[in-house]
Write a structure and sequence with these properties.
single chain; alpha/beta; 7-stranded mixed sheet; 7 strands; 41% helix
Length: 268
């Protein structure tokens, strides 16, 4: 309940009727799940004076609030047996009224989008209506339906249903753990394959993440096939021969042979 707006105008009405202001609410506090305050009658009108006397005497002793709905919920945790409309979970306090009987239909005034909500049977209500039709035996009906969905007999009690749910949760947790372990093993295989390719000079180290992502996408088998098709990089010096082998030397022609003979004679 948001009371910030009301704190700026802490009006006290009579029977939720605008135009019948009889005072203010002072010392407003919001703590421990309760909103409290003190009634202060302005005695500016005959009605205010009358209400003050009746309040002090005790013939009027109840107050009721009017508030604007901000948020509703259809969560089953917030529903009561037989409830037809969504539960109000957030609201804004608009006014506080002195009332004669706080338990009647007008004891709490609710508004949504400017429209008064009437909680009595047959009244208009802008709150979302629940899709299901709750009945007094709805909890039993829900338990029966849940038991059948879990593969249990419809006569299964709450303890049996809870035990089945716990077993399914345990099985689900185990399956999730197995899935995570499997994913970790796959990642380790992919990482080992990529690291091996880097060590073999098949791929540069700065491309590691690219091939890791590729392995996660296509799988270890396709990744291995891809890496196997890449030839290791070779040094340039390994591809060059600085001196040809003897049997690979080009054969000299007659002219070159004659010149060699002349050079040898000159050396002598």
């Amino acid at each position: 309940m948001d009371i910030s707006q009301y704190e700026r105008n802490p009006i006290l009405l009579y029977m939720h009727n605008r135009g019948k202001a009889i005072g203010l609410i002072k010392e407003i506090k919001k703590e421990k799940g309760e909103i409290t305050g003190e009634l202060a009658f302005d005695e500016a009108t005959e009605l205010s004076c009358q209400c003050k006397k009746q309040w002090e005497f005790g013939s009027l002793r109840m107050v009721s609030i009017g508030f604007e709905i901000i948020e509703t919920s259809e969560d089953r945790r917030h529903l009561l047996p037989g409830q037809r409309y969504a539960t109000v979970t957030k609201a804004r306090l608009i006014e506080v009224s002195l009332v004669d009987i706080g338990a009647n239909n007008d004891a709490i005034r609710l508004h949504k989008d400017g429209q008064l909500i009437t909680l009595s049977e047959g009244g208009d209500c802008p709150l979302p209506r629940l899709n299901h039709k709750p009945t007094n035996n709805e909890p039993q009906m829900e338990l029966k339906a849940l038991a059948l969905q879990l593969g249990l007999p419809e006569t299964a009690d709450e303890a049996a249903v809870n035990a089945k749910l716990a077993a399914l949760k345990t099985a689900g947790d185990e399956a999730e753990n197995i899935r995570r372990e499997n994913e970790q093993l796959k990642l380790e295989q992919i990482t080992a394959a990529v690291d091996g390719a880097i060590a073999a000079k098949k791929i540069p180290a700065d491309k590691k993440q690219h091939f890791l992502d590729l392995g996660k996408t296509v799988g270890i088998e396709t990744l291995n096939a891809t890496l196997d098709s890449i030839a290791p990089a070779q040094k340039l010096s390994a591809t060059l021969q600085t001196e040809p082998e003897n049997d690979e030397l080009p054969k000299k022609g007659p002219w070159e042979l004659r010149m060699d003979e002349i050079r040898n004679r000159l050396k002598k």
